[in-house]
Amino acid sequence: MKKMIQLSQRLQAVANLVGETGVVADIGTDHGYIPVYLVSSGKAEQAIAMDVNPGPLQRALEHIEQFHLQERIETRLSDGVKALQPGEAQAIVIAGMGGALMTRILSEGEEVAHMAKPLVLQPQSELPAFRHFLAEHGYRILEEDMVYEDGKFYSMMAASWVGRAGSSTGAAAVRAGQMTEPDYKYGPLLLAGRHPVLRQYLLQQRMQKYRILENLGKNARQDVSGRRAQLLQDLQEIEGILELW
Questions:
Q1: For residue range 92-106, what is the model confidence (pLDDT) as tens digits?
Q2: CA of 215: how far to CAs of 132, 208, 224, in Å?
Q3: CA angle, 50 as apex, 112 and 120 as ends, to 5°?
Q4: 18-40: buried (b, 16+ CB within 10 Å) or exposed (e) per residue?
Q5: How far apart (Å, rounded) are the C-alpha atoms in residues 156 and 131?
Q6: Alpha-helix runs per DSSP H in the chain
Q7: pTM of the prediction?
Q8: How far is CA 3 from its chain centroid?
Q9: Which end of the chain, N or C, is surrounded by fewer C-beta atoms within 10 Å?
């Protein structure tokens, strides 16, 4: 019986967005869990596990050897996708790092990123700004997923570069026209699909904002009118979205 690696819920959702492919490159591979899973499960023929630091690459190599996949998974020291040639990997995974760092990686490795089908992305922060970047630079979000694990919410997406002509309609696969600010904040396909974990996140956000609003009312020493107005605006937006479920 073939030995299989067990992924966390977050990494499993990321791996699911890759689908079946020839060669997959995992940027910032850490322990190499995603390449090992994709190759050992037959979803990828080969993989390149890449990281900017030698330590994570050594840990990845240990897992690769544990599953006897040395001939099918290569480790490569690389800052972002700099050590990857355009078209060398059909699918590229960038997961578990901040949105600003992922933006830099995609900007510096534009030629490589443009050829990835799909580009599977899981930013840990700055999601609205990251989705703006994708839309403005010609990427279309093809799939999205969201999981709740160990007290945290994680959003992940599969995207593909469609050219500047497609930059203003990142959610064109779902609806015609411009992406709205809620699309950028919460994910166009998560919203369109009424994703249950997104609803859970919105309910949590609503509760937190009401709590902050209540505490603001107890603070008479500072002018909190601007903060209060922003909270009320955010709550109105969340309430409007939740009505769609």
A1: 999 999 999 999 999
A2: 32, 11, 11
A3: 55
A4: bbebebbbbbbbbbbbbbbbbbb
A5: 11
A6: 9-18, 33-40, 54-66, 99-108, 110-114, 127-136, 181-186, 188-192, 196-216, 225-242
A7: 0.90
A8: 28
A9: N
